[in-house]
Amino acid sequence: MSPPWLKSVPDGVELAILVQPRASRTRVVGEHDGLLKLQLAAPPVDGEANAALLEFLAKQLGVPRRQVSLTAGDASRRKRVTVLGVDAARAEAVMSGKT
């Protein structure tokens, strides 16, 4: 059974993410309240945190940046991100640190 923050969609996965901007470094913290919690070093100013989030996820999941898109939560700490070209098992393994 996949975690509550991970959902399969056609051609990829959707991640439900809780973002903590202005952290000391960018990293996956774990699960928090049914969401995948990420700390981002970038500040939440002029879309910098969103850009850093998408870049981080693309790098972690090994896909081009163009395959990662923010689908909800542009100005919120709670976000939904769609990643194309990745299956749920791989996304769960990478984000849970099991790779």
From TrEMBL:
Coiled-coil ranges per UniProt: none
Source organism superkingdom: Bacteria
Gene Ontology CC terms, in alphabetical order: cytoplasm
Gene3D superfamilies named among the record's database cross-references: YggU-like (3.30.1200.10)
Xref: SUPFAM superfamilies: YggU-like
HAMAP family in alphabetical order: UPF0235
Family recorded in the similarity comment: Belongs to the UPF0235 family.
NCBIfam families, per the entry: DUF167 family protein
Name of the protein described by the UniProt record: UPF0235 protein HG543_53060
Organism the protein comes from: Pyxidicoccus fallax
Lineage: Bacteria, Pseudomonadati, Myxococcota, Myxococcia, Myxococcales
